[in-house]
Amino acid sequence: MPSPKSKNPVRGGGSPVLGSSNGRYDFMSLTKPLNRSSPPHQRQGSDPATARLRASESPTRRRGSSSSTGSGQGLPDEDGLRLNPSFIRVALSSLLAIDLWMSKTMGVCACEDSSWGSVRPLMKLIEISGHGIPWLAGTAYCLYKSDSATGQEVMLNLFMGLLLDLVLVTIVKAVVRRRRPAHNRMDMFATFSVDRFSFPSGHATRAAMCGRFLLAHLVLAAPLRFLVVLWAALVGLSRVLLGRHNVTDVMFGFWMGYIQYNLIEMLWLSPQTLQGLLGQLA
């Protein structure tokens, strides 16, 4: 007659029967995990620590742990590396959109039929006053006509500063290659191929550099000093009103011209130094 225990293996809240050996039944407590993947001879006497150790040593567990680590705890660093360029890209795109919108809104003199088209001739006159050719020609003429050594020294360094400005602006424009605003009308005075590009504004760099130079090396009364600052600001503003440049082109141009003046002061040439250099070259 079969034993009643074999018909009802679970009694009084006990756990299921795992097997029998020598007529004895083995039970496992509900508090111990059942490792069904282990062989039958390893199920007896196993504890949670041993089961976890075996699971951690298995290749499947190692692959799962590495993937879970890469997607869990490793995410903040990786996401941080990917999030920062994305955030910077979004911020730059937003600033670029604002720049284009402001430049188009302020281009009120871009054409004759614009809202301020009647002021366009005056803006073009201010544009010519900041052009490189009049400044180079006028500085060379003053250097030739100057009788004092101090005047020659000042005009010489201003001429060198204008050449430095021309070279640096050309290099930056060739590297950046930013197109001019779409609403610009290409009727500028004495342009060349690099002037198809917009960043930075050569007029703004020249105005900032020459303005600082005149204020530092010429003895001017207060009204004249104010006019110099006003002229530099109007030259930069005319670039946006005429649609020649974007707002950021002018702002960067002012900053670049400010730095160029510092370079001129560092590389200041005296007539004696120039004569020595020319003698060495000869």
Structural overview:
This protein has 282 residues and is mainly alpha-helical. The protein has helices spanning 4-7, 40-43, 48-57, 59-71, 75-106, 120-129, 132-145, 149-176, 202-217, 222-241, 247-266, 271-281; strands at residues 17-21, 24-27. It has a two-stranded antiparallel ribbon. Strand 1 (17-21) and strand 2 form a beta hairpin. Helix 6 packs across helix 10, helix 9 (202-217) packs across helix 11 (247-266) and helix 10 (222-241) crosses helix 11.
Give a short overview.
The chain has 282 residues and is mostly helical. The protein contains twelve helices and two strands; from the N terminus they run αββααααααααααα. Strands 1-2 form a two-stranded antiparallel sheet.
